[in-house]
Amino acid sequence: MPNQINSLYEYLEAYKKSTENPEEFWGNIAESFYWRKKWDKVLEWNFDEPNIQWFINGKLNITENIFERNLADFGNQTAIIWESNSPDEPSQHISYNELFKKVTQFANVLKNQGAKKGDRIAIYMPMVPEAVVAMLACARIGAIHSVVFGGFSAQSLSDRIIDAEANILITADGAYRGAKTISLKNIADEALEKCPSIQKCIVLERTKENITMKKERDIWWHEALATAQIECKAEEMDSEDMLFILYTSGSTGKPKGVVHTIAGYMIYTEYTFKNVFQYHKNDIYFCTADVGWITGHSYIAYAPLLASGTLLMYEGVPNYPHAGRFWEIIDKHKVTHFYTAPTAIRALMATGLEHVKPYQLDTLKVLGTVGEPINAEAWHWYHAHIGKGKCPIVDTWWQTETGGMMISPLAGITPTKPTYATLPLPGVQLMIVDTEGKELKGNGVEGNLCIKFPFPSMLRTTYGDHERCKQTYFSTYKGLYFTGDGVKRDEDGYYRILGRVDDVINVSGHRLGTAEVENAINEHPLVNESAVVGYPHDIKGQGIYAFVVLEKDGQTHEKDAMKASIISTVNKIIGAIAKPDKILLCSGLPKTRSGKIMRRILRKIAEGDISNLGDITTLLNPEIVEEIKKEAGF
Ligand code: WT7
Fold it and tell me: Which distant-in-sequence residues (6+ apart) come within 8 Å of 88 by Cβ?
């Protein structure tokens, strides 16, 4: 296979080349892709504006690189194996030839509904092959997709549609998730009341639940398909045209639309997929992420298909109808590569080995994790009981903004160390700095993780607000991209991610801004103000701890009822993923004389460690700390 690293020596060579001559390195890799017209120049950049451009003036379509480039060799191979939420529903096998037809025909549906190159199309779908078809159909016609996770609320959906000014929404009647169904279309209807930009809503039939179709606006997927032609020529796109927008949380209350462009994203995600997983022909790769997150974009919808792989896509959740469901699927489909999140591993570990024992798991070759730091206990359990001691674990560190994996072992090549993401991938130039921005050189250092040179799949902007991109990522340390993560480089030069150093909490591998959760809590009519911090949680990695001050009227209500009502407000405004695990009602929050909430104190209390709260005498209201401590059970 082209661009394949086969040994530690080759990795070191590739890394060296990629830093000494990045343009030649990535230019060579880009040669194996299908271009309508090759680029004039590989890279132009500065991190001040920022302005980042790769493969300048290249012309291509990413779907031609998935399909036309490879169909002669891989047309009959299975592209997607789909496994239903219910073990009783038959699985589907979709070949590359079949997937190609589905994509081009649905691309024609989009065109028939008025979609054009450059339009933004929102996707709010269950984990069914049609979600991938919808994304690739957008790419086929040059429309920019914005996928919204199916667990988000009506308000989160409408906020994202409004920000992107999307003109089409693709959704389904409902989604199966374990024992529950989510009424996607009903939620979408509520969202669309606030979205005048949406002209058409295309609805896939999945759960057959009762929904209403709005005349003129709503159209069934299968009915639209019946009148659509199959062939659809790919739109010619520029390397730097937008491929998609994906919203993610940050330190402020409002999620930002991270923008990825076509060529760099395509090349980097395929390259990392092949090398990190050491994926070979006939391997079967199972990634448990949802298409609503970046992992589902890069390592479900795009990279495995660009690499002509066989992808297993699962509709359901890890513990339904039983806690052995993942392992059952691995045996059933002879999965060789399995990629999941530490939170899922911890949750399944907690259910006991009796749920693993009935399965062989002997087809597995490589295990992966992503989304949050993996603790040593979970790493060892995964290695011993799922990998049977013979599968390397790739702990892949990356972000929505980086589009592809940044720090990771290459499976079976890079010696691993539990809890370490190990070494940077080719093209990734890291720098550790202290809080003043001074570089911490050498090994055995700990600080803030930055990237000092562009790589092809890095974000280009935040949609509609370039200044925000600059402020968030390129202004903390001049000339550097700041990741928001703390990191340790140990004596061997290995990297271990320590977690976020900003106001972002990572709940079950999902990123949430504390301000975003606070804003949602504050929407409750009886809430006066709130402060949210993360705390260590056995399963979720981090849990959400909310300190809430009620209005006078709220203080007369029963406490548990108030807490339940606050949780339902958060559910409604963001979605269930953001609901606080703990709520502490108090009469005030510790504040400095300038009115700033002292989160450091709240964080300590939430972590259950009050031995050293630091100096609280400078507080405006030191007495409140005693009240909160007491309420927290100290
Ligand atoms: C944040 C990015 C990348 C896809 C899923 C999350 C944390 C991610 C790891 C890892 C330790 C990790 C970081 C990062 N993170 N992978 N292997 N080890 N931490 O994407 O929502 O953009 O979140 O997730 O804190 O900054 P995301």
Answer: none
